[in-house]
Design goal:
The protein is α+β, with helices and mostly antiparallel strands. It has three helices and two strands; from the N terminus they run E-E-H-H-H.
């Protein structure tokens, strides 16, 4: 807490006023702060000033789109293995989509790493059984 004392001379200098005193010493001190009292002032956000200009994005020179690029970027519609709402006249179209998807994936690429791992585990298990039994 900060205490300060100062002299006060009233403007009205009558003997009847202020008990006849010409001057008074006034002691100033801070009021204690109530921690549960709500805030008296509201904090407002000041708008930010202009920032630095955006960094320019360096692009490669434009080139024409070829038929091969267009074919690579084309994505066929999704086909569900469990449920297709409209099955009937469009089944040939869906079969074509599935065939084109399989052609893009490559022949026989699914399952090869898993089989080699499975065969390795199987041979290790057989070798361990032989060693334990002997």
């Amino acid at each position: 807490m900060h205490h300060a004392a100062s002299r006060y001379t009233p403007a009205n200098q009558n003997a009847a006023h202020a008990s006849g005193a010409g001057q008074r010493i006034v002691k100033m001190q801070d009021m204690p702060v109530d921690p549960l009292e709500p805030p008296k002032f509201r904090h407002t956000k000041v708008p930010r000033g202009p920032g630095s200009p955006p960094v320019p994005v360096m692009h490669s020179p434009p080139r024409p789109v070829t038929q091969e690029d267009q074919k690579n970027w084309k994505i066929p519609p999704a086909i569900s293995n469990w449920k297709n709402a409209k099955v009937g006249a469009n089944s040939g179209v869906q079969a074509g989509r599935v065939a084109s998807w399989g052609a893009r994936m490559g022949a026989g690429c699914v399952g090869r790493p898993g089989t080699s791992c499975l065969l390795g585990l199987w041979s290790a298990c057989v070798n361990m059984c032989v060693r334990v039994c002997v």
